Amino acid sequence: MRLARHGRKRYAYYHIVVADSRAPRDGRYIERIGTYNPNTNPATIDLDFDKAYDWLVKGAQPTDTMKAILSYKGVLYKKHLMGGVKKGAFSEEEAERKLEKWLTEKEAQIQAKRERLAGEESAAVKKQLDAEAKLREAKEAEIAARNAKLAAEAKAAAAPAEEEVAEEAPAEEVTETPVAEEKTEASVEEKAAEVAKEVTEEAPVAEEKVETPAEEKAAEEPVAEKAEEAPAAEEKTAESEEAPKEKGAES
């Protein structure tokens, strides 16, 4: 009894066969009595118990791997019990009872191992999921903190701009309106002053042009002539008065 290899590379499974020892490993065989898949944990073994026991009793020699498989499935233990029955150590019913008890315990052990492995696998998956969840939460917290920081920076940067805009708007209103009014008032006053100045300047200039050059000279010249003529008249009168006096004295 031996194993015949099947399956692809790095994923082999085996047929349990009874074959001639001179036949190739994967060649011709007499009978196939089960399969063996070592890729699962625990290994999956599908064995025809009665056929394996019959071939073992007939003298078929198992390989080392097949011995382990037959021991795992209880075929060798049954052969041992049947040897005790032949020797008269106990009856066949007792041997069957012992074998049934052993198979039940063995199946319970296999089931416990499967449950333990499944629990370990689920615990590993849960641990991995928890680690991924923590990592995801940490990343989300980091992203939220970064977004909050950026929002705070943007708000802090926008606040001074808003304050400047709020400060500049009233300043412009306060400064621009009075300045415009002052400019308009100043321009009105300046225009009025200029008009008044022009009027005041034009009036004296006209008077000076009309009166001063001709009339004043004309007025001043007769006065001078009169002033000059007055002493001459006085001299004449004085001479005339002196002349009679002299005439009287002579007479």
Quick take:
Helices cover 76% and strands 10% of the residues. The protein is built from 4 helices and 4 strands. A 4-stranded antiparallel β-sheet has the order 1-2-3-4, with helices on one face.
Can you walk through the features of this model?
The structure is a single chain. The chain is of the alpha+beta class and 251 residues long. It has a domain at 1-89: S16 Ribosomal Protein, Chain: A, CATH 3.30.1320. It is built from 4 helices and 4 strands; from the N terminus they run E-E-E-E-H-H-H-H. The chain has helices at 49-58, 64-73, 75-87, 92-250, and strands at 2-8, 11-18, 31-37, 44-47. Strand 3 and strand 4 form a beta hairpin. The longest helix is centred in the C-terminal third of the chain and has 159 residues, at 92-250. The protein is rod-shaped, with a radius of gyration of 72 Å. The model is unreliable at 171-180, 203-234 and 242-251 (pLDDT under 50).
